[in-house]
Design a protein that fits this description.
The complex is a heterodimer. Helix content of chain A is 0%, strand content 53%. Chain A has no helices and eleven strands. Helix content of chain B is 0%, strand content 49%. In chain B, strands 2, 4, 5, 6, 9, 10 and 11 form a seven-stranded mixed sheet that branches. In chain B, strands 1-3-8-7 form a four-stranded antiparallel sheet, with no helix packed on it. The chains are: A mainly beta, B mainly beta. At the A-B interface, β5 and β10 of A face β5 and β9 of B.
Chain lengths: 111, 115
């Protein structure tokens, strides 16, 4: 019940395209859903986060879509750039308790 | 503003030896977390502290692992009698309790290789 599932495992997108990563969870006590970005040799860094009282949150080229009834959420990266090439982790937590991470999606944006 | 720092960044040891990692969180952060990350996987929760109190320890964590945060500032993670399966990146993160936004600030990790 503590698991966060994520797909795809890897993703190749052309520059300017849209990258979409999907996640699902089981624990209905989760009330905070962040996305973290990790570059090689670095620790993960918060990209964007959402709480379940809204269905969408947008920050620049990054958008989270959240479907509470389906217990699913997704990250959309618009106008993907080579600098977006990184590993992306969806995650979840309950009342800002420990954060549970998904297995990650390796994104490559090709010129 | 200094971020989360971890030491050492790399550690190579022989099976059966003990190793200790240190984490210095962002100074005003009350919470400190330890995660383990293996290649191609997401960070796996190990344990976390609020000030000096250890609030939770993963059931997946064997008795060979112990963590401390004696004065509510830096923390150490010790692995006794290391095994090859302990080879991983050990990540430390901290967060602020007051006005908590939920954001974890990660260090760059300590990579352990057990031969």
């Amino acid at each position: 019940q503590q698991q966060v599932k994520q797909s795809p495992q890897s993703l190749i997108v052309q520059k300017g395209g849209i990258s979409i990563i999907n996640c699902a969870y089981e624990n209905t006590a989760f009330d905070y859903f962040p996305w973290y970005q990790q570059f090689p040799g670095k620790g993960p860094a918060l990209l964007i986060a959402i709480r379940p009282d809204v269905s969408e949150k947008k920050e620049g080229r990054f958008t989270i879509s959240f479907n509470k009834s389906a217990k699913q959420f997704s990250l959309h990266i618009m106008d993907s750039q080579p600098g977006d090439s990184a590993t992306y982790f969806c995650a979840a937590s309950s009342s800002y308790d420990k954060v549970i991470f998904g297995p990650g999606t390796s994104l490559s944006v090709i010129p | 503003d200094t971020g989360v720092s971890q030491d050492p960044r790399h550690k190579i040891t022989k099976r059966g030896q003990n190793v200790t990692f240190r984490c210095d969180p962002i100074s005003e952060h009350n919470r400190l977390y330890w995660y383990r990350q293996t290649l191609g996987q997401g960070p796996e929760f190990l344990t976390y502290f609020q000030n000096e109190a250890q609030l939770e320890k993963s059931r997946l964590l064997s008795d060979r692992f112990s963590a401390e945060r004696p004065k509510g500032s830096f923390s150490t993670l010790e692995i006794q009698r290391t095994e090859q399966g302990d080879s991983a990146m050990y990540l430390c993160a901290s967060s602020r309790l007051a006005g908590n936004t939920g954001e974890l600030f990660f260090g760059e990790g300590s990579r352990l290789t057990v031969l």
